[in-house]
Design goal:
This protein is mainly alpha-helical. 17% of the residues lie in helices and 3% in strands. It is built from two helices and two strands. It starts with a helix and ends with a strand.
Length: 115
């Protein structure tokens, strides 16, 4: 029975003195089951599987070039300040691509330029 359990992968042959008469056969059956991945050995990888090679990091797209503000045009109000609309400002302001207050109706980077 001990040898059958070892052969099916459900026991490991260990030597306990003075009972050594069948140890060699049981140990051989246990080793064969381990190599074959039988029984409980099917849940144990024979050797760790190598990790896949690291893939290169994806390239970060370059930020679009933001045009410079036209001379003499003040910057628009920053994000985080209470909501502002064109009636709160003295005239056109430069918002560029960032327009948190939606002041640039025509998309040219200048807010409040068409009252």
């Amino acid at each position: 029975m001990d040898e059958a359990l070892a052969r099916s992968g459900h026991a490991v042959g260990e030597l306990h003195l003075p009972n050594r008469a069948r140890h060699a056969r049981i140990a051989a059956a246990s080793d064969a089951a381990r190599r074959a991945g039988a029984g409980l050995w099917s849940g144990c990888p024979a050797s760790p599987k190598p990790s896949p090679p690291a893939s290169p990091a994806p390239e970060t797209p370059e930020a679009p070039e933001v045009p410079a503000a036209p001379a003499g045009l003040p910057p628009g109000p920053p994000a985080g300040v209470p909501d502002v609309d064109c009636s709160d400002l003295d005239g056109p302001v430069w918002v560029g691509d960032a327009d948190p207050h939606r002041l640039d109706r025509d998309g040219d980077g200048i807010g409040c330029d068409s009252r």
